[in-house]
Design brief:
CATH topology of the largest domain in chain A: Alkaline Phosphatase, subunit A
Helix content of chain A: 25-40%
Number of strands of chain A: 13
CATH superfamily of the largest domain in chain A: Alkaline Phosphatase, subunit A
Radius of gyration of chain A: 23 Å
Oligomer: homodimer
């Protein structure tokens, strides 16, 4: 019996509501003996933690640093080693493209090329969104035999590209990227990365498409070329409602997290990015769903910038506004992260993630502050992220007993 | 996606060096409330542990006592339930025999037999190595149809035997041993342990070989017979360099651990057994490798002898000399064991193993002494040995992020 089969078999309805408050990259490393979370003044969370279950989570495996995709999939209970979601798919989902089984997606960078075809700017001077949209519109005039394609503006110089096979044509994601990752050199041709017929045909298609785009944009400036990365095939995965029976929504400001949420079948709510506005949105849609994924981005951004103080201040901002969430009386409130992003490390890391779970069915955590050091002694110990959804379901009365 | 596939996909080069300092059988049981490690005066390790990540490790599964093979394979990240390495293979590797896929290896004891073929001494009076070598030389004159064989002196009365099939001939390891495990009785014939043709043919071969050896040694004394144990087929396993991209060496004084190291593709460095000499050897080869497995044997030996004080004093000797390792500034230093060997238990045991991991990317362990009791509260909690390599790779910057 696999995990999803078990959840599907045991799930039952309850009116209880579950809030996942995800502070992206929350986990940290100590500076003068204290991590970002331990440094932040968090009276609201510290008050909660004593009455809650609490602990730490390993997102994938010990030592494995997750990208946002695996980090969130694990939080949502999807084994990140089984459900590998390529970057191109996240881009397509991020622009709300209605992707289908078998589609091949990629990330597009508009770029500047010189007369010899060498890349002079990998971001085409970060063109504004309306220029991006105009370039996409031009590219849509291209015809490719046997293939339908879609190109959609993301933001600045970025767009999402989707190929759809006609007449049963199949693609492969085992093809190399065309982005040379530096300037002063030509774009790379895509090459098949395995021996399959599909990989060869897909690489040919990409190279043909690139040639057509170059011809189509040859008189444009600065965006007269494209770079393609993150080729990924879309395969449908079980939805949140199918696995858990939850009517879930996502309150996330950034396209990638919206993409991840829609991948698992959550409704994506239009929102500004920002603690106050996202919490206000939560209140607004409170009656319409029973699961709420609230994604706070800036803890991670400041971690990646190496800005310890700014990361601390985002944590404090969440803490100051937490009453807005608590006033809604969610039966289950979880405060956690998708992975750690220590400011000293300036990148995602493998270190376990802080976790707090509030419900009326909690043992007391036995600790008094919400910080990595204290959480080591919390009631949940160190669990795997993939186990969190089971706990959320149990604490909200949404799982029946297993077996007689 | 399995663990090795994941490591292979994510591995990247860094100049960081990793030291695995393995105190064989380090874990213990309390006497007057303190284990061997807790009793030992270890100011160096206690000083380290406060600034390190620390915890305990389960080598195989809770309750499973590993032999040296599974204990070390797990430390090296190889699932010991998947990669079962027979004792015969370890003997062959221990004498640096260039074993090949499909070879069948066994341990040999030279023994004394009386005129009726009954065993009178299972170790032939522990013959000196040069007598052992002379016997091996005699045995090499035997011819077996369809099979090549090799016999190599180990030490005292022990040797390694390897059969190699000619013309595609296949062996089975499902055959019984010929050692009766007591004196006054004849050696046992080998029997097939399953219904396969290979098992029957292999048992026949072993019995034929035994008869030839008996004839060949009939005028010798005291070693006029052999006992065969630990039949094992060799199957190549992924190398350390293939899985982790590491250029690894082993500084181990004892053949079995050298065999284990060479099994996973480590370079085996010639060294005397002894803390000071092994640490000096580490310094000598420091520039040539990026992973160093330093194996200290005597903690285990004294544990098996039931000599609590002597085990304590080996731990103290390592601690006194630890500065020789720290002066090399390894980016990652791990101090741990392959399994526990409590002096009171006088044998390997299943109890979790002490673990300390030093790098610049550590959360503080929150503890102040390196001992089983304190380690329960360490930052790593209780992990599986098989997870350690992932942590070592992460802390040394040798693993890329997983997924976008």
């Amino acid at each position: 019996m696999d995990r999803f089969k078990l959840y599907k078999q045991l799930k039952q309805h309850s009116d209880d509501k579950i809030v996942f408050l995800v502070l992206d990259g929350l986990g940290g490393l100590p500076r003068n003996g204290k991590t970002e979370l331990e440094t932040a003044s968090t009276p609201a969370m510290d008050g909660l933690v004593a009455e809650c279950e609490a602990g730490l989570m390993v997102p994938v495996l010990r030592g494995i640093t997750p990208g946002s995709g695996p980090g969130h999939l694990a939080l949502f209970g999807y084994d990140p080693l089984e459900y590998a979601i390529g970057r191109g798919i996240l881009s397509a989902l991020g622009v709300k493209f209605p992707i289908r089984d078998g589609d091949l997606a990629a990330r597009v960078n508009f770029a500047s090329l010189d007369e010899n075809g060498n890349v002079t700017d990998r971001r085409a001077g970060r063109i504004p969104d309306d220029v991006n949209r105009a370039m996409c519109e031009k590219i849509r005039s291209i015809k490719l035999e046997g293939v339908e394609f879609f190109i959609e503006t993301e933001k600045d110089h970025r767009a999402a590209l989707i190929f759809r096979g006609l007449g049963g044509r199949k693609f492969s994601e085992a093809v190399s990227e065309t982005d040379p990752q530096k300037t002063g050199v030509p774009t790379l041709p895509s090459r098949p990365l395995d021996e399959s017929k599909e990989a060869k045909e897909t690489a040919d298609l990409i190279n043909r498409f690139f040639k057509e785009v170059k011809a189509c944009l040859k008189n444009e400036s600065p965006a007269n070329g494209i770079l393609l990365r993150g080729f990924a095939l879309y395969r449908q995965i079980p939805s949140f409602s199918e696995v858990y029976g939850l009517n879930a929504c996502a309150i996330a400001g950034y396209p990638m997290y919206r993409g991840l949420a829609s991948l698992v079948g959550m409704e994506v709510i239009e929102t500004e990015s920002g603690v106050e506005s996202q919490f206000a949105k939560l209140r607004e849609v409170w009656d319409d769903y029973d699961f709420f994924f609230v994604h706070i981005k800036y803890t991670d951004s400041f971690g990646e910038d190496g800005n310890f103080e700014a990361k601390v201040s985002v944590i404090e901002e969440v803490d100051r506004n937490l009453s807005a969430v608590l006033e809604l009386n969610p039966e289950v409130l979880i405060i956690t992260a998708d992975h750690s992003t220590p400011a000293s490390y300036k990148a995602h890391s493998w270190h376990p993630i802080p976790l707090l779970l509030k419900s009326k069915w909690c043992r007391s955590s036995g600790i008094k502050s919400f910080g990595e050091q204290a959480l080591l002694h919390g009631s949940l110990g160190i669990i795997n992220s993939i186990d969190l959804m089971g706990l959320a379901m149990a604490h909200s009365g949404k799982l029946q007993k297993y077996g007689a």
